[in-house]
């Protein structure tokens, strides 16, 4: 793992300096960490949090209104020293005293405890509240032994909420202890992390395996299992936490939870959203109402690959905590309602929309299966050639053309089948195939194929019998649209180099009163020859243009795939004509 740093020994101090420089309106540097840029009001209990560095947003990123008054920051993954904690706490404290909260780790407990004793000796009221949310680090009958992980946030929020509403020290402490008792977290890891300047990770997880219950520094978990799917992991995380539903709330039947799905560093937001889909569905199946879910990086561990799920069981007081305002460098929640009129009703799914068949003539409906047969043939051809197309694309591109074409053709086939089953006409079958191709394949080729099929489908329509002039005109319009929006011209070494001669030939052959099958066959042969001729060209558009010399001597994959598709479609048209005669 590579990091941006100057000297490993200076990493933490320079990181704090840069953090403060980035947020001068919210935080101020003090020895040992940071405090709010504004003074703690008289009579308000100050909340100081902290722990080792390397977990951002925890802990410095959580300093601000609605959260901490200060954060003590130790070396990477190491407790801050008692001196650092004392310095930050003294700078943050008011006449009402200070409560210090942190994850329940031996070094933190010791150093925060020493700092509290020193503060009290100077007449500053001080108490310590270790967070104990990690269900895998101790049995339910000994929760005081458990570690604090991402559930730190709920306790920090409860502390700040009670302090800012004016509770005295005992009131703030007891209120936050209840939040701690109502918070449960469960984490897993897929790989370890490497510290700045180190050459090896702190720990490793075998490929294809997952550590269960590991701590945020790589502390041993309770098991190691095969890596599950995202859905399986979501179910596993929820079910384990539901085993420890707080007894008091269970009796009251309160079905509300605050939820945090936390990424530990290397698991990115798109992956977290995939996982949260399963988490939210599982919670709904359990009859729970989710309030203000948090999905993102809340307590990290450098580039550790892993996630944790936290459930914060809510009564009325705790829901007020969870939905209250907060403004910090890394965590902002606003209690002002979103303006505007709420959107009513559920959005229709693509499948629901496709179930609605536009009006079509009987003859167009009868010809729709022929369109489906052509799409089936295209899919079969692309499936057979996908690997070869990918290798050809890898010469000067990124090698994804084959898989992209296969993904598009597969989606187009599924959409065509749904359209025929729904009773759509021939034009709609092509339009929906094009939309599905573009939607699933993505990228340039996906957009162009989607545009082409939709344009051809619109030209054929759902009323008239499909005839050669309409097909030729539709192909011409499709190629014109692709050129207009894609920007390619003949000679640029793209699929247009095969498309344009195909369209020109098809139009000319149809005007010469050739049958559609005859005209298509001739046009397809010209497209294949034109595709092969692109081998001598240098690309002028797309990613391949940056490696143009590499592609000389090899045909353009887009042109080749177009020629393959027209050949497969032509063979199917001929077979359909033969079967009809």
SSE topology:
Elements: H1 11-22, E1 27-30, E2 33-36, E3 46-53, E4 70-76, H2 82-92, E5 98-103, H3 106-121, E6 126-131, H4 152-164, H5 169-181, E7 183-191, E8 209-212, E9 223-226, H6 230-242, H7 247-252, E10 256-263, H8 269-285, E11 289-296, E12 305-313, H9 316-322, E13 326-327, E14 332-333, H10 350-354, H11 362-394, H12 401-421, H13 426-441, H14 443-460, H15 468-486, H16 496-511, H17 516-533, H18 548-551, H19 557-580
Parallel strand pairs: 3-4, 3-5, 5-6, 10-11
Antiparallel strand pairs: 1-2, 2-4, 7-8, 7-12, 8-9, 10-12, 13-14
Helix pairs in contact: 2-3, 4-5, 6-8, 11-12, 11-13, 11-19, 12-13, 12-14, 13-14, 14-15, 15-16, 16-17, 16-19, 17-19
Write structural notes for this entry.
With 581 residues, the protein is an alpha/beta fold. It folds into 2 domains: 8-191 and 210-333, Rossmann fold, CATH 3.40.50.10440; 351-580, DhaL domain (Serine Threonine Protein Phosphatase 5, Tetratricopeptide repeat, Alpha Horseshoe), CATH 1.25.40.340. Helix content is 49%, strand content 14%. The strands form 3 sheets. A 6-stranded mixed sheet has the order 1-2-4-3-5-6, with helices on both faces. The chain has a 6-stranded mixed sheet with strand order 9-8-7-12-10-11, with helices on both faces. Strands 13-14 form a two-stranded antiparallel ribbon. Helix 3 links the parallel strand 5 (98-103) and strand 6. The radius of gyration is 32 Å and the shape is elongated.
Summarize, please.
The protein is built from 19 helices and 14 strands. It is an alpha/beta fold and 581 residues long. The termini are far apart.
């Amino acid at each position: 793992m590579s990091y941006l740093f100057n000297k490993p020994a200076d990493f933490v101090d320079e990181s704090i300096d840069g953090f403060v420089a980035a947020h001068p309106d919210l935080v101020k540097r003090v020895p040992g960490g940071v405090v709010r840029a504004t003074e703690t009001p008289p009579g308000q209990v100050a909340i100081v949090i902290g722990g080792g560095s390397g977990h951002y947003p925890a802990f410095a990123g959580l300093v601000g209104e609605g959260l901490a008054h200060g954060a003590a920051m130790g070396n990477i993954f190491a407790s801050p020293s008692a001196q650092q904690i004392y310095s930050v706490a003294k700078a943050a404290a008011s006449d009402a005293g200070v409560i210090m909260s942190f994850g329940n780790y031996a070094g933190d407990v010791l150093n925060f405890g020493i700092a509290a004793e020193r503060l009290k000796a100077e007449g500053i009221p001080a108490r310590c509240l270790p967070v104990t949310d990690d269900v895998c680090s101790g049995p339910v009958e000994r929760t005081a032994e458990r570690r604090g992980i991402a559930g730190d946030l709920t306790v920090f929020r409860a502390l700040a909420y009670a302090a800012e509403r004016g509770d005295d020290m005992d009131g703030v402490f007891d209120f936050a202890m209840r939040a701690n008792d109502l918070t449960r977290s469960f984490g897993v890891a897929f790989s370890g992390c490497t510290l700045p300047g180190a050459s090896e990770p702190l720990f490793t997880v075998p490929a294809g395996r997952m550590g269960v219950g590991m701590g945020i520094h790589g502390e041993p978990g309770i098991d190691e299992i095969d890596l599950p799917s995202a859905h399986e992991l979501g179910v596993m995380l929820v079910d384990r936490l539901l085993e420890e539903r707080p007894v008091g709330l269970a009796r009251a039947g309160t079905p509300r939870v605050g939820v945090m799905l936390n990424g530990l560093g290397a698991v990115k937001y798109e992956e977290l959203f995939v996982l949260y889909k399963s988490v939210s569905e599982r919670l709904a199946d359990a009859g729970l109402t989710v309030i203000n879910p948090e999905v993102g990086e809340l307590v990290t561990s450098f580039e550790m690959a892993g996630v944790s799920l936290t459930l914060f069981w809510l009564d009325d007081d705790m829901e007020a905590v969870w939905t209250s305002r907060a403004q910090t460098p890394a965590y902002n929640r606003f209690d002002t309602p979103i303006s505007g009129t709420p959107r009513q009703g559920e959005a229709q799914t693509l499948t629901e929309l496709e179930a609605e068949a536009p009006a079509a003539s009987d003859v167009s409906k009868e010809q729709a299966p022929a369109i489906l047969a052509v799409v089936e043939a295209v899919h079969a051809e692309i499936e057979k050639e996908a690997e070869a197309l990918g290798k050809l694309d890898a010469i000067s591109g990124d090698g994804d053309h084959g898989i992209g074409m296969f993904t598009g053709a597969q989606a187009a086939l599924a959409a065509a089948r749904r359209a025929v089953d729904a009773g759509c006409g021939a034009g709609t079958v092509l339009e929906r195939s094009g939309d599905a191709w573009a939607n699933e394949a993505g990228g340039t080729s996906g957009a162009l194929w989607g545009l082409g099929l939709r344009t051809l489908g619109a030209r054929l329509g759902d009323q008239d019998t499909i005839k050669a002039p309409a097909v030729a005109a539709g192909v011409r319009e499709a190629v014109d649209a692709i050129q207009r929006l894609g920007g390619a011209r003949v000679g640029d070494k793209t699929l247009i180099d095969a498309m344009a001669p195909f369209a020109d030939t098809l139009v000319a052959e149809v005007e010469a009163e050739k049958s559609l099958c005859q005209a298509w066959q001739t046009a397809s042969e010209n497209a294949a020859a034109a595709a092969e001729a692109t081998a001598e060209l240098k690309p002028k558009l797309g990613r391949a243009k940056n490696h143009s010399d590499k592609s000389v001597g090899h045909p353009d994959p887009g042109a080749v795939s177009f020629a393959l598709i027209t050949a497969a479609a032509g063979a199917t048209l001929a077979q359909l004509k033969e079967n009809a005669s």
